[in-house]
Amino acid sequence: MKAVIMAAGKSTRTHPLTLTKPKPLLKVMNRTLLEHQLDALLGIVDAVVLVVGYRAEMIRDAFGTDYKGMALEYVLQPEQLGTGHAIHQCQGRVDGPFLAMNGDDLYARQDLERLARMEHAALVKKVEDPRPYGIYEVTEDGRAVRIIEKPKEVFSNLANIGAYKFTPEVFDVLSRTAPSERGEIEITSAIQILAAEGDFFVTEATGYWLPLGYPWHLLDANEYFLNHFLRSEIHGEVSPGAYLNGPVYVGKGTEIRPGTVIDGPVCIGENCSIGPNCWLRAGTTIGNRCRIGQAVEIKNSIFMDNVFAAHQTYIGDSVVGDWANFGCGTVTANVRHDGGNQRSMVNGALVDTGRMKLGAIVGDGVHTGIHTSIYPGRKLWPGTTTRPGAIVTKDLMS
Predict the structure, then answer these.
(1) Which of 66, 85, 227, 262 lies at a 20 to 30 A Cα distance from 151?
(2) Alpha carbon distances (Å) from 394 to 185, 195, 269
(3) In a domain, 226, yes or no
(4) Domain with 365 in it: what CATH number?
(5) Is the Cβ–Cβ distance between 387 and 345 less than 8 Å?
């Protein structure tokens, strides 16, 4: 059996992180989102068809044609015309029952295993507020009656979470599925046809489901993986003068210098220099070849690769892209004075992040001048810089 992963989109909601790389190559606990997805599919399917589009060559170069013995194939979707359109591109590549899943959601293995044993079916999750989702009306035995996207009338709390089991019959259904109001072929429209013409079932996810629609969702996923899957292992060198508490992973070639305090769960990659006299707090992931130096404090944050914070810096509840460099005294504020939820500009609209604490979202190659202060929830576009003493009150896009 094969799986189809829809990974073609530009992911504008995760800007600035996806201005320089496709979303499947963003990392959680030092592994790409695509690696987490493929690991969950190992032993369930024999091959994976990756529907790619935006910066497709980066995904091909990173993964090739094999992942731990599982064959990888690529289908190009040059125009992103909907989830149904993405799956329809795989006609001719899939000749039997198959799984299909969003490229920006992480699913528990046990739920994918159960889904794979069904015929036409979808994973669902009970949510408190179903209005942002597609929701299902189902019979007592789990048969879908209808699915409505972003309903005005809430008739169910069973959210569609973007993982499906189909047979090749779905390709014929997709060929006669009308475009939505957005002009796209939606897989949920095809599911409505399948439910009307035959049996389409739902099964509730009992394990984790980690949707990654916005940059701050990476922090949620990182925290979940650190708390549930991190193993304490030391492959580098730890000074007797350093203090490690709780689960801490230290990669090969990494040096933990005297005076460093690490309160796990914390994951540190390979060939890093950590310390002296810095503090890595719980929920933090440090990528490969990073430099964290004197009097630096990092809390509940993700550093991608080759990030430098050499001295006297505070980074909290933030996501930092590759090759960022923080000048001495850079500080990210992460709490509003009124204690309210942080809000962030996304595609011209102010979005409630649902988080009381959120620092900065920093793109690849950002450099800050000394004593830079960054307001909560602000984004710095790739390659941008700040002058010494700068106060970043708005997203920095140029």
Answers:
(1) 85
(2) 36, 47, 31
(3) yes
(4) 2.160.10.10
(5) no
Q: Is the dihedral of CA 264, 288, 362, 324 positive or negative?
A: positive
Least confident range of 145-159, 272-286, 324-338, 339-353:
145-159
* Same domain flag for 26 and 169: yes
Instruction: State how beta strands 266-268 and 284-286 pair.
Output: parallel
- Sort 142 into a burial class: Cβ within 10 Å, 0-12 / 13-18 / 19+: middle
Contact between residue 381 and residue 360 where contact means Cβ atoms under 8 Å apart: no
| Alpha carbon distance 136, 363 (integer Å) | 37
Task: Count Cβ atoms within 10 A of the Cβ of residue 351 and give its class: 0-12 exposed, 13-18 middle, 19 or more buried.
Answer: middle
398 part of a folded domain: no
User: Are residue 24 and residue 142 in the same domain, yes or no?
Assistant: yes
- Residues ≥6 apart with Cβ < 8 Å to 106: 28, 33, 36, 37, 40, 208, 209, 210, 212, 221
Same domain, 231 and 207: no
Closest among 15, 55, 18, 26 to 397, alpha carbons compared: 15
Distance in angstroms (rounded) separating the CA atoms of residues 193 and 146: 9
Residues 167-223: tens digit of each pLDDT = 999 999 999 988 887 788 999 999 999 998 888 999 999 999 999 999 999 999 999
34: closest CA among 58, 16, 13?
58
Count the Cβ atoms, other than its own, within 10 Å of residue 220: 16
Per the structure, the complete domain to which residue 116 belongs is given by 2-211
pLDDT digits (tens, 9 = 90+) for 63-78: 999 999 999 999 999 8
The residues carrying an active-site annotation are: 311
- CATH code assigned at 105: 3.90.550.10
Same domain, yes or no: 310 and 362: yes
Alpha-carbon gap, residue 117 to 104, rounded angstroms? 23
